[in-house]
Amino acid sequence: MASGAIAQLKTAIASGDQAACGALIAAEPSLARDWRAIMEAALHVDLDLIRLLLDAGADPNAQSPAESRHRPLHRAIEPKASVRPRGDRAEAVGVLLDAGADVDAPGCWYDGRPLETAARGADAELAALLVERGSRRDVYAAALTQDAELLKHELARDRGVAAAASQSGAGALHLLCASRLNRADTPALARRLLDAGARADAIAEMRHGRFPVIHFACWGGEADVALLALLVAEGADPAGGLYEALWSGDLAAARVLVDLGASVDGWSHVGKRPLLHDMIQWGRTKAALWLLSAGANPNATDDKGWTALHYAASRGAKADVVDALVAAGGDRSRRDAAGLDPEAVGRARRG
Questions:
Q1: 316-342, pLDDT tens digit by residue?
Q2: Could you confirm whether domain 268-351 is CATH 1.25.40.20?
Q3: Does the reported pTM lie above 0.90?
Q4: What is the residue extent of each domain of the chain?
Q5: Is the dihedral of CA 55, 76, 68, 284 positive or negative?
Q6: Structural contact between residues 330 and 299, judged by C-beta atoms closer than 8 angstroms
Q7: What is the spatial distance between Cα 109 and Cα 286, in angstroms, rounded to a whole number?
């Protein structure tokens, strides 16, 4: 299959040009079976194009080989800020399920079933639809949908499921904390899982790394303060949630975690460097300034000998970040392992 042809089809789908899509598929029928086509149509929630591709042989269970590992169901459920949906997500999910999409097939970076995608996105309507269409009603579904009765039933059936990992590596407590459905009930349901044997310090061994429960509790921002306090009281390390709180801009949660014992000079599990460096590297300016205001050391170094000022110079950070680093005691003359000071790093970046 010519890469140019699939690129043309993706462009036509992105623009909603049904006539062009039909003509391209008629000229080269195999285009409809390329995973990129159905994924693009699902991303735009374009019902007409989803149906067109499915009728032409698209696989409703196709999976992206990229890191995202999306499937059409996940892609249709998960909003993307830069893409305005053209149709109703629930209807698109129904069309895909009617075409044979597996309601519980894992996908996304977290290898979760579509129900997890709906729960993470706080979409109660889609979560209910997936359950209605046959999504497994197990302890993980109970956690995701925050269903107290189902959770009670599953724990009574087998208490061991409280601490058991799902297919993705996440346990019921991880998934409960990740869910954004019925969040007023989360601390009470977390207490029930903990009493049944779940561990607040449990680590999910997942495809993208190792993630503690408290990371899931901070995922996406607006973390439940009562939940964070409960997890820490039961043995969770508050440092395990600080990166996610900072990344999501949830500075209130970051403050709570620091008050509970997390260090502002802790290291990121993602960049393998001090949190302050990571926030500057990825342009999380508010988080970086907050860390400085909370006492983070601007002269801490990573494995290269870089300070926060080196990172600011390498990223071309705005003057307010540089000024804040200097005001907090950042040393402009500090040299890294290669003998470069921040100014030299900045010159190298500018070429």
A1: 999 999 999 999 999 999 999 999 999
A2: yes
A3: yes
A4: 1-102, 136-262, 268-351
A5: positive
A6: yes
A7: 26
